[in-house]
């Protein structure tokens, strides 16, 4: 049963990737890596790389590098984190095939709390971002809600196939307070309790338009 579910998961990923890669589409693709390394019972190191493309790969939209040090207020939960992010963006000039290159530096603070109801694993993340773009400063608030539900096992453990969903809203503190909203659904596989891979579709809704993004994600929580 496990082998069939695992084979089905990888077949789904390959089919979606092949479909996105073979067709001319407005669907972009994000390759995402999330590391969360435990230093001791209280402290952890967060490390993250996001490689975002306008197509499946090769047409860079954005490269994001994020890191931070966190502290658990309770055992393995209620994590406060202070971090830094570097973002290199290459947006297209409207109506042309030319690109602009911009660099952004961020300082961010976040709080993550987790809950479990039966098989349903819930995570809330509250984040504040201080954004430095050229000579401009912006402040943004984010709220992220995610669900992970194992399908073939009772817990998120080795060989578990799971359904995943999240929604994240971004709010600016200045005019035009709504920045964007991201809604995602996907399926994942746990190679172990600390390593999992996931693939799905995210719809990013902006004030004036929206765009779909295929996502391939790797999660690593192996300790030092």
**On the 0-100 scale, what is the average pLDDT?**
90
Helical residue percent band: under 10%
Q: Specify the biggest β-sheet.
A: 11 strands, mixed, barrel
Strand-and-helix sequence, N→C?
HEEEEEEEEEEE
> Compute the gyration radius: what is it?
18 Å
The tally of helices reads 1
Pairing-aware structural class of the strands and helices? mainly beta
Count of β-strands: 11
Stretches where pLDDT falls below 50 for ≥5 residues?
A: 17-24
- The 3D shape can be described as globular
Distance between the termini: 33 Å
* Sequence of strands across the biggest β-sheet: 1-2-3-4-5-6-7-8-9-10-11
Portion in beta strands: over 45%
Keywords: Signal
Signal peptide: 1-22
InterPro entries: DUF2490
Protein name: DUF2490 domain-containing protein
Short description:
The protein is mainly beta and 224 residues long. The chain has one helix at residues 2-22, and strands spanning 28-38, 43-53, 60-74, 77-89, 102-117, 120-133, 136-150, 161-172, 178-190, 195-206, 210-220.
